[in-house]
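User: hey, got a sec? need SprT-like domain-containing protein folded
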Amino acid sequence: MSLLKFLGYLHKLLRQSLYRHHLMPASTTSKKFLLRSALPVDFSRGEVYDLQEIYQDLNRRLFKNALNLRIGWFGRTRSGRARKVVLGSFHEDEQLIRIHKSLDRKEIPRFFMEYLVYHEMAHSVVPREYSLSGRTIFHGKKFKEYEQRFPLYERAVAWEKAHIKVLLQGK
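Assistant: Yep! Here you go:
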């Protein structure tokens, strides 16, 4: 690749990066993400889990109370089985964590709920990474390293893999 071609490519990447970082809100980069962010959030205590209590405990123990985020439930309680479900999401522009309501049940262990909330909290701490083409990498190397600091990381990931059917079914 010639130097001139390389500089042109670098300039294109810089323009894309500047646009994504400074001109376009993070939530508008994906239509699905934008639709999800428009869904109402329920900040009340769940039937089984109190997200605010889990968040405050993790913030105190693992983040030294450095975070100031909001957390709530989203989605409808589903009946039947889904092929795919978004368990949680972090919305940077709103400083908001959303956890799917279908997880508010006894079949979901507390350590897994804590892991899920920690995972979303980690998104607020670890900067996004970008590929050479300018695509956002939400779970890049730095994020995965940070995520593995969760004390019960291996147990939570193993539980998730072993119980994927439980996660895909509704209440």
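Quick note: Residues 18-28 have pLDDT under 50 and may be disordered. Let me know if you need anything else on SprT-like domain-containing protein.
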